[in-house]
Amino acid sequence: MTHRLREAMRDGSLAPMGGIDGMPGAGGIVEADETFIGREPGVPKARAYHHKMKVLSLLDRDAGKVRSVVVDDIKPETLRPIIEANILKEASLFTDESSIYTKVGATFADHQMTTHSAKEYVRGIVHTNTVEGYFSVFKRGMKGVYQHCGKQHLHRYLAEFDFRYNNRAKLGCSDVERTERALGGIVGKRRTYRSAGSGA
Asked: Considering the entire predicted model, what is its pTM?
């Protein structure tokens, strides 16, 4: 049942992020960052993050909305097509100094980085603190409430946390509106017990 609800919460929007309402051709700010959670099935435990499941999140700072994707690895060739497909070319991309973003950043109107290795986390308006704050809420929820999640279901949990973030009170969404949007998301979707268990 909970997976059916998460399926209803899945946005599925393909509209690029980083636009500014009422200003065609103008670009806003989109933060991009990756995080790691749990353990990748069949991957031996290692130092750092290699054995963990990997998530890329894009956060449109002007709209206050996030979009998250489960990825198999964090190589530039894996993340670049996702970033390019989901962000307008007119947007400004804000990231950390990871080489993952060096080449893809050049395809946008602007690319600003903070150098975390040099203890630089904010430079004026340049930071990835907003998306990192989203990760904090996501991880606290996963560890504190759900405790464990297999990779085949991670995209559904991300859909739930994206939905919560994108329909929060700060954006003017009431409890009633949030419920109506969740129920409205069930139209045209079919989630059976068998398919939910398979991760489909």
From this structure: 0.85
Nearest of 62, 98, 53, 64 to residue 80 by alpha carbon:
98
Which tokens is 140 given? Answer: 């606290």
Domain boundaries along the sequence of the chain: 2-198
Tokens of 78: 């894996």
- Tell which residue, 108, 58, 50, 53, has the closest CA to residue 82: 58
Reported as a single tens digit per residue, the pLDDT across 127-180 is 999 999 999 999 999 888 877 788 888 999 899 999 999 999 999 999 999 888
Place of tokens 């990997």: 54
Alpha helix (H) residue ranges in the chain: 2-9, 76-86, 102-105, 129-141, 151-166, 175-184, 193-198
Q: What does the angle CA 176 – CA 178 – CA 182 come to, to the nearest 5 degrees? A: 120
Tokens of 129: 């603190």
Q: What is the mean pLDDT of residues 100-119?
A: 94
Kindly report the CATH number that applies to the domain delimited by 2-198.
Answer: 3.30.420.10
